[in-house]
Description:
By secondary structure, this protein is α+β, with helices and mostly antiparallel strands.
Amino acid sequence: MKKFLGVATIVLLSSIPAHAQRAAGSAAGSSSTAALTFGGGSTGGGGITGDVGHLPIYSRAEFATAAFRGDPSFAPSSYMTFEDAVKEGIAQSAPARTVAQAAADHQAAVREKSRVEFVQDHSGNVIPVDR
């Protein structure tokens, strides 16, 4: 019984925030244009009037367009002849290099040697020497 009451309490408490999503118009009636009034006295009270349950209406977005001119002989760079496209397709469909091939190419590459050498003097200090 205690478990049932505990679950019922949790469900009830978790459903309370769901009512915050509804428009306050449910208390004033089913009309979407119902007016809400608060407080009051002989001179009147504060109030909220208007369309409480709906989002404001905005006009459609308008985007600026611009035209540009260029050389009429312009051809897009992606255009190529059929033969060139076939050659490029064959080149792209070639098998990719393996990691071992990339490592071998990296080791075989000629590297520039250092122009500075470090030597040690009689006191043990390091001295850079230009070569």
